[in-house]
Amino acid sequence: MNLPGCVVVVLVSALATFANPREPQAVTVPPTNQHSTAVQETVSELQRSMPSEKEFSELLAKADEKVSAFEAAVKNAKPRLDKINTKYATNYLDAAATAHTVISKTLKNGPTAYALVTILTTLDDLSLDAASGTAFLLATDEDQVVAKGAAPDPNTRSDVLTLSAAGTGCNDIAELIMHATLRFIAAEETALNKLLDSIH
Questions:
Q1: Which pLDDT band, with edges at 50, 70 and 90, does 147 fall under?
Q2: To 10 degrees, the CA torsion angle through 133, 61, 114, 177?
Q3: What is the pLDDT of residue 90?
Q4: Residue 33's pLDDT is what?
Q5: Percentage above 90 pLDDT, the chain
Q6: Which residues lie below 8 Å from residue 74, measured CB to CB, with a gap of 6+?
Q7: How far is Cα 185 from Cα 50, in angstroms, rounded to an integer?
């Protein structure tokens, strides 16, 4: 699609504003441009309908807390997980470190659809890690009881409960972030469609 040069400038300027909701400044459009009113209205609507910076900051801070809780649960369970396979706890802790990094960068640079989906994927991975970790621990403890007639290990039961709760916490905050992300993407798509319609 070939767009007139002035329209391309307007479109690029508007999209630059969409990509950074932390700086809700009006797009400066030359007064001679016939699309200036449509652009200004589109940007204003985008800023009104998107989740606020405060909402995202609170959600991401809570997500970071849930990741820390997962991390602590894995560290507590590590001695027993290592007896099963040393890679489990290591992989889980690496995933938690990745989650902390992605969340920190998003808090610093502002949310984008790409960053938010990355966070959702990472939190989902942690939930799955917690579920698999609890399954490994329970299966191993049950094997010990059946094979040796030993009593269930209370430390294993405690680890299972803590890991399970941490996984649920990651899942719950991911659901809240998902709803905010859908609103974020919907606002961007609506604004972009209106902007494109205005230049036809």
A1: low
A2: 80
A3: 97
A4: 55
A5: 55
A6: 81, 89, 92, 93, 96, 129, 133, 163, 166
A7: 8
Judging by beta carbons within 10 Å of its beta carbon (0-12, 13-18, 19+), is residue 50 exposed, middle or buried?
Answer: buried
Neighbours of 121 (CB within 10 A): 12
Mean pLDDT, residues 109-118 = 94
Residue with tokens 């890690």: 129
User: In one letter, which amino acid is 85?
Assistant: N
State the Cα–Cα distance between residues 186 and 199, nearest whole angstrom.
20
List, in sequence order, the alpha helices (H) in 27-112.
Answer: 36-49, 53-84, 86-109
CATH number of 53-183: 1.20.120
> What are the residue ranges of CATH 1.20.120 in the chain?
53-183
